């Protein structure tokens, strides 16, 4: 089932409106609503005093309309009575100032009061709705992030965490290399939060602090999850992650949940119109990669966004529909739009809903209604189909954090580079899974592994095995630099992968924003920037060379055949064109499935069900585009035959049953 849903806040509206809203939703084809994730002050207006009557009534209305309910636990918004009476709930910032209530997210994950009251409100809600036939699952809290709390509870917990991890101060001092600048700890009490950290602080300590912070969120979530698992064993439990890049480790966060959910707001502005679809494709592939299964879109765009910034453009005609299909094409099992109607009150009045404040359903609502009709009609067909790439791109929050702690060169951004490689794959029509760099990668035939800066022997061995077993493994600059403690290896780069890659880095130059030149075997010239590893092959064959500066003529890219596969090493960051050429050649040599000749802005994805493949062709641009399908196919959208040339209107969508 692919479920269409909306976010709804009964608490923002007069009761008299609820029934009409629920009734119109049902007529529109809405199958699920998310409720209550910020409603703590209504559910528990005073300490220990609960009021569920309003929520009972709302859930009942939806139930009567055949609409299912996902409930949010309201722990992102502790009410005023709680923060007033139990001030340890409030986080303390890096300037040691207590954060004030009045916005949201003002909660310390390690606060004893926060933990106690959270467990209680979640239990009360869970007990009340465990058996309600409309309620199908839970969203814990809302868009968790690291809150860098420096309160005494977090400080104490951090020490405990470090004790658990290292056992003794000696071991910790050794692992972090605290000998530098006389940083040796002689008492546990000397270990404190980094108060924001700076580039002058110890990078091993800073990275461990980030890990500790993730663990604090995971533990806070687990407290709620335990209650929900015990009380509502029949319900799913998820969390709506905010986008990427992210310091909080979503892999660890989502491990105990049933599936991941993503809040997805593609950019509507003209200048981003060309790229946001590609960035979005990566975000969706990452969301699918978190648990390597389908996921939910728990929020997505319904109108002009704004509030924290001047409003963006309204979604162009077709935008809401096309981006919802992009979610489904890349693995979403539900798409929940944020929100039903623009809020009349509060800070998000201008983060628009499907229906405007006027309460007159307009163009965006009509488009959404059409989308619901389509998705509901196709839901049976797509039911049970799955997205699975033959290629993988590796991602890691740990690497992201390590690079945030120590930026390597002007303009070198770990996540932007990931986007660059993924965009090249997407433009080539290669369906790619974006997966945790720490996972089992066997089975993938092409593996792009950007900057595996923290790398141990075991992980290196796994990648080497993948290559030996037939994969093309692509490594880039800043691979194998450090161990897991964020401490440099004393060996030639790329460290534990040097042998497998058949190459070492004899010297490097962090060229940053300067544009340099490189040339490939065919004599084509490309710009490169950020970084130049000057390579000495030891078994690998050069396939591109630098073309200027003191390293002109030295290898920039090498390939080494290894067992049934090969390892490619790219020592620099080139312009997109280079990756398109290189990946095309590599993919075609190993016969990866792909669709050639996609125009700019057009993306494909494939969902498989048994022997059947559904090919999604999405025009995420403002231009009419023509795509060559290489044959004629049955459209599952219109039940007509389409191709070999397919014309897509701006934000046009086609889905065909595909036989390669
Ligand atoms: C999300 C958040 C929602 C709402 C939305 C629009 O990030 O989860 O509660 O704030 O953005 O701003
Ligand atoms: Zn704290």
TrEMBL record:
> What positions does the domain Beta-galactosidase C-terminal occupy?
601-656
Q: Name one GO biological process term.
A: galactose metabolic process
Q: Which UniProt keywords apply?
A: Glycosidase, Hydrolase, Metal-binding, Zinc
Annotated Beta-galactosidase trimerisation domain residues = 390-592
UniProt keyword Hydrolase present: yes
State a single Pfam family of this protein: Glyco_hydro_42M
Q: Which domain of life is it from?
A: Bacteria
Q: Which reaction does it catalyse?
A: Hydrolysis of terminal non-reducing beta-D-galactose residues in beta-D-galactosides
Family assignment from sequence similarity: Belongs to the glycosyl hydrolase 42 family.
InterPro entries, sorted = Beta_galactosidase_C (IPR013739), Beta_galactosidase_Trimer (IPR013738), Class_I_gatase-like (IPR029062), GH (IPR017853), Glyco_hydro_42 (IPR003476), Glyco_hydro_42_N (IPR013529), Glyco_hydro_b (IPR013780)
Give the E.C. number(s): 3.2.1.23
Q: Which PANTHER family match?
A: BETA-GALACTOSIDASE GANA, BETA-GALACTOSIDASE YESZ
Q: Where is the active site?
A: 143, 299
What taxonomic lineage is listed for the species of origin? Bacteria, Bacillati, Bacillota, Bacilli, Bacillales
Q: Return the protein name.
A: Beta-galactosidase
Instruction: Choose one Gene Ontology CC annotation of this protein and give it.
Output: beta-galactosidase complex
Question: Is Hydrolase found in the keyword set?
Answer: yes
Gene3D superfamilies the record matches: 3.40.50.880, Glycosidases, Golgi alpha-mannosidase II
Q: Where does Zn(2+) bind?
A: 108, 149, 151, 154
Q: Which residues form the Glycoside hydrolase family 42 N-terminal domain?
A: 8-377
Organism, scientific name: Cohnella rhizosphaerae
Tell me the residue numbers annotated for binding substrate: 104, 142, 308
GO function terms (MF aspect): beta-galactosidase activity; metal ion binding
């Amino acid at each position: 089932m692919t479920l269409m849903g909306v976010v709804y806040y009964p608490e923002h509206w007069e009761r008299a409106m609820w029934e009409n809203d629920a009734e119109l939703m049902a007529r529109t084809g809405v199958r699920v609503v998310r409720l209550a994730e910020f409603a703590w002050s209504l559910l528990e207006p005073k300490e220990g005093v609960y009021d569920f009557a309003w929520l009972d009534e709302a859930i009942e209305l939806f139930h009567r309309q055949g609409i299912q309910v996902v409930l949010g636990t309201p722990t992102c918004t502790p009410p005023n009575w709680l923060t007033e009476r139990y001030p340890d709930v409030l986080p303390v910032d890096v300037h040691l100032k207590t954060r004030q209530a009045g916005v949201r997210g003002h909660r310390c994950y390690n606060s004893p009061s926060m933990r106690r009251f959270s467990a209680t409100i979640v239990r009360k809600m869970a007990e009340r709705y465990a058996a309600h036939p409309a309620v199908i699952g839970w969203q814990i809290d809302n868009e968790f992030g690291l809150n860098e709390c420096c309160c005494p509870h977090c400080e104490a917990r951090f020490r405990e965490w470090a004790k658990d991890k290292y056992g003794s101060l000696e071991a910790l001092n050794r692992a972090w290399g605290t000998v530098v600048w006389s940083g040796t700890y002689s008492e546990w009490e000397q270990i404190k939060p980094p108060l924001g950290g700076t580039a002058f602080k110890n990078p091993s300590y800073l990275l461990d602090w980030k890990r500790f912070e993730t663990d604090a969120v995971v533990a806070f979530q687990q407290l709620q999850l335990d209650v929900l698992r015990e009380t509502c064993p029949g319900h799913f439990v998820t969390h709506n992650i905010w986008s990427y890049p992210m310091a909080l480790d979503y892999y660890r966060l989502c491990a105990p949940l049933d599936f991941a959910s993503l809040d997805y707001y593609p950019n509507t502005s003209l200048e981003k119109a060309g790229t946001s679809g590609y960035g979005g494709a990566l975000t969706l592939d990452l969301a699918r990669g978190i648990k390597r299964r389908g996921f939910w879109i728990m929020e997505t765009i319904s109108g002009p966004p704004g509030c924290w910034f001047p409003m963006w453009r309204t979604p162009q005609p077709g935008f809401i529909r096309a981006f919802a299909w992009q979610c489904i094409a890349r693995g979403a099992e539900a798409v929940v739009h944020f929100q039903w109607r623009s809020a009349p009150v509060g800070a998000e009045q201008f983060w628009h809903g499907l229906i405007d404040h006027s309460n007159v359903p307009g163009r965006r609502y009509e488009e959404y209604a059409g989308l619901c009709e389509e998705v509901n009609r196709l839901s049976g067909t797509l039911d049970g189909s799955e997205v699975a790439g033959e290629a993988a791109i590796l991602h890691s929050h740990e690497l992201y954090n390590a690079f945030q702690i120590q930026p390597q060169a002007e303009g070198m951004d770990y996540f932007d580079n990931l986007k660059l490689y993924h965009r090249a794959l997407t433009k080539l029509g290669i369906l790619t899974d974006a997966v945790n760099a720490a996972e089992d990668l066997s089975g993938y035939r092409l593996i792009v592994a950007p900057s595996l800066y923290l790398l141990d022997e075991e992980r290196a061995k796994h990648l080497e095995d993948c290559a030996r077993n037939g994969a093309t493994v692509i490594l880039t600059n800043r691979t194998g630099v450090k161990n897991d403690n964020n401490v440099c290896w004393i060996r030639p780069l790329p460290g534990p992968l040097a042998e497998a890659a058949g190459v070492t880095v004899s010297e490097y130059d962090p060229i940053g924003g300067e544009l340099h030149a490189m040339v490939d075997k065919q004599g084509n010239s490309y710009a490169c920037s950020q970084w130049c590893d000057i390579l000495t092959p030891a078994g690998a064959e050069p396939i591109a060379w630098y073309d200027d500066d003191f390293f002109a003529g030295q290898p920039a890219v090498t390939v080494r055949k290894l067992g049934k596969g090969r390892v490619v090493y790219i020592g620099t960051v080139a312009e997109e064109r280079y990756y398109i050429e290189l990946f095309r050649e590599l993919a075609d040599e190993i016969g990866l499935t792909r669709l050639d000749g996609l125009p700019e802005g057009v993306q494909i994805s494939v969902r498989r069900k048994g022997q059947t493949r559904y090919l999604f062709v999405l025009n995420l641009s403002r231009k009419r585009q023509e795509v060559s399908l290489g044959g004629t196919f049955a459209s599952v959208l219109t039940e007509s035959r389409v191709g070999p040339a397919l014309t897509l209107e701006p934000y046009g969508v086609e889905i065909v049953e595909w036989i390669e």
